Amino acid sequence: MKYLALIYAAPGAGPDYGTPEFGPYMDGYRKATETYRRDGVLLGGEALQDTSTATTVRVRNGKTETMDGPFAETKEQLGGFYLFDCANLDEAIRYAAMIPSAEHGSVEIRPIMDVG
User: What are the C-alpha distances in Å from 47 to residues 34, 80, 116?
Assistant: First the structure.
């Protein structure tokens, strides 16, 4: 079954780019990604640009509306994702726990709906 692991963290919760702590932090992501590849569960994954680059789109009464930024008011922001192919939810949880942001943010796991 496919699972999407959505990575959330509050701005500034992890180490800042360019600090001595940032390198080891990113090494944690590289190690996790290597494990996902080695175990054959990685289907995809990307880091996202800052929420200041986001655009929210809605269609109301046939009219397209856009607004800058994410719509949801929350301290934690979506920063990236992994797409896994796992045998079950327990396996997806085990892999999601390897994501470094889980230590200061959260990782939401959502099963992918098979509509085909």
Answer: 16, 4, 28
Can you give the pTM of this predicted structure? 0.84
First-to-last alpha carbon distance for the chain, in angstroms, is 14
- Biggest distance spanned by C-alpha atoms of the chain: 51
- 107 in a domain, yes or no? yes
The tokens of 40 are what? 């054959």
pLDDT tens profile 29-65: 999 999 999 999 999 999 888 888 888 888 899 999 8
Q: How many domains does the chain have?
A: 1
Query: Could you identify the residue written with the tokens 């726990």?
Result: 97
DSSP letters along 42-91, please?
A: EEEEEE---GGG-EEEEEETTEEEEEES-SS--SSEEEEEEEEE-SSHHH
Q: Is residue 116 part of a domain?
A: no
